[in-house]
Write a sequence for this structure.
């Protein structure tokens, strides 16, 4: 069997409203409604390596936006039979709190990040501008440790991280946001992370309310649709609870938290 097994792990959740998270939602003339917002990270298992896209965060320590914990990252990995020390690569979609918490668990992993993300957040840290931001010094310390140990790989352009996994720096939501394309067992998957939080954003190319560059965010949404059209890839929005309705749960003890995407 070729291609990666791709599993989405739901470590937290909350319910929000379309009008609360979609940029200028009222201008579309559409009814408001609830959105089930899942907080996820993704496991990519190949023949000889286990990779992660993002690493979750500790909701029990702090719920930034009313997130409800589902399972801590380490417990989820244990249920899936994954030793964090054996994870070879962690791709960070961006450095927001809900995507790079627990990064320090992966002491042996190469950490892949957007160069623009690194510059943006370490610039803020150096200038003492992290108060009230979407990342803390604690989060960034794990990135710095990877850098000091020679495990940090910054990407500036479309980059093949390894055969079957390509990242595209798109910015928009955060300056170095990465889109990840994986050759999964079932075919190509676009793991959008926060380049597209919800299916509506992909369908209509509607921006999310939180962005650093609105034009980049719009271009990222159209890139997602262009790549999907060109390659036949399936697009997985990063925070949409409806992903769990479209794909099967994993077999076994992790069924409650883990969904097989490909
Ligand atoms: Zn997020």
């Amino acid at each position: 069997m070729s291609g990666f097994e791709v599993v989405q792990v739901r470590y937290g959740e909350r319910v929000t409203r379309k009008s609360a998270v979609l940029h200028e939602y009222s201008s579309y003339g559409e009814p408001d409604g609830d959105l089930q917002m899942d907080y996820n990270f993704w496991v990519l298992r190949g023949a000889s390596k286990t990779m992660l896209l993002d690493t979750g965060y500790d909701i029990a320590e702090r719920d930034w936006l009313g997130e409800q914990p589902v399972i801590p990252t380490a417990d989820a990995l244990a249920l899936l039979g994954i030793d964090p020390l054996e994870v070879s690569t962690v791709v960070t979609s961006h450095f927001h709190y809900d995507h790079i918490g627990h990064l320090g668990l992966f002491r042996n992993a190469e950490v892949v990040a957007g160069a623009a993300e690194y510059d943006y957040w370490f610039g803020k840290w150096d200038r003492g501008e992290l108060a009230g931001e979407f990342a803390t010094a604690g989060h960034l310390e794990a990135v710095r440790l990877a850098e000091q140990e020679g495990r940090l790989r910054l990407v500036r352009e479309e980059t093949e991280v390894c055969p079957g996994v390509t990242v595209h720096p798109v910015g928009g939501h955060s300056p170095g946001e990465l889109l990840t394309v994986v050759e999964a067992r079932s075919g190509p998957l676009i793991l959008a992370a926060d380049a597209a939080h919800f299916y509506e954003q992909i369908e209509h190319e509607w921006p999310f309310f939180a962005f650093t560059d609105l034009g980049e965010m719009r271009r990222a949404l159209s890139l997602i649709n262009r790549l999907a059209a060109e390659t036949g890839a399936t697009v997985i929005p990063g925070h949409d609870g409806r992903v769990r309705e479209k794909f099967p749960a994993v077999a076994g003890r992790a069924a409650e938290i883990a969904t097989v995407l490909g």
